[in-house]
Design brief:
Elements (H helix, E strand, L loop, with lengths): L2 H22 L9 E7 L4 E9 L2 E7 L16 E7 L17 E6 L2 H18 L1
Antiparallel strand pairs: 1-2, 2-3, 3-4, 4-5
Helix pairs in contact: 1-2
């Protein structure tokens, strides 16, 4: 199998339990929360979700854990939660990524722990509103 396609399938398979938990989450049923899923173009399945709450964003994603050819573990913590406030930083011309100070990033080895953290971040944002 093509390594790129295998990596895409592995990411989406890893994200499947997160996707299911988010769909069932009472926290995300709040109408003030906008949820969007990033669909992998090679698999047409979700590989990440982003929540918008006012001018805050929280993203949860699955990354590749194993090398697509050798099967060796290349990422022991493939689940990632990133949060930021829009317009909280300004990019320099020609710079594609914001400064580290404008983003909170945490990685996890277990999808359940990443879901708990993701939902706790959203709850914190809701309590500020």
């Amino acid at each position: 199998m093509d390594p790129l396609k295998k990596s895409a399938q592995d990411k989406c398979l890893s994200f499947a339990s997160i996707h299911d938990a988010l769909i069932k989450s009472e926290t995300l049923s709040d109408e003030s929360i906008k949820v969007s899923f990033r669909i992998n173009p090679l698999t047409d399945k979700p590989e990440a979700a982003e929540v918008s709450l006012g001018n805050f964003r929280v993203n949860i994603s699955a990354n590749v854990r194993s090398h697509p050819v050798t099967g060796d573990c290349i990422n022991a913590e493939p689940f990632e939660v990133i949060s930021w406030q829009t317009n909280a930083f300004s990019l320099e011309e020609g710079c594609e990524t914001p400064p580290d100070g404008g983003i909170s990033r945490k990685v996890f080895g277990d999808p359940e722990v990443s879901i708990e953290y993701f939902l706790s971040q959203i709850s914190k944002l809701q309590s500020r509103s």
